[in-house]
Amino acid sequence: MHISIAHLQPIVSLIAGVLILIAPRLLNYVVAAFLIISGVLGLHLLS
């Protein structure tokens, strides 16, 4: 299976959701990491 940028964002969202459910205090860090990753992927800086 080939994972592209289009497949990566939902995977990151799923992991972020699970982390928020496990430890709600991590919400700020998880949201910040998600936004940074989404921005980097959206700008195609990693491709």
List the helices and strands and how they pair.
Layout: H1 5-22, H2 27-42
Could you characterize the architecture of this molecule?
The chain has 47 residues and is mainly alpha-helical. It has one domain. 72% of the residues lie in helices and 0% in strands. Helix 1 (5-22) runs antiparallel to helix 2. It is flat, with a radius of gyration of 12 Å.
In short:
The chain is built from 2 helices and no strands.
Mean pLDDT: 79
Structural class: mainly alpha
Question: Per the principal axes of the C-alpha atoms, what is the gross shape?
Answer: flat
Find the count of extended strands (DSSP E, 2+ residues).
0
User: Uncertain runs with pLDDT below 50, 5 residues or more?
Assistant: none
Order of helices and strands: HH
Give the helix level as a range of percent: over 70%
Q: Quickly count the domains.
A: 1
Instruction: Give the strand content.
Output: under 5%
**How far is the first residue's CA from the last residue's CA?**
17 Å
Q: Specify Rg, calculated over alpha carbons.
A: 12 Å
Could you give a short account of the major beta sheet? Answer: none
Number of helices: 2
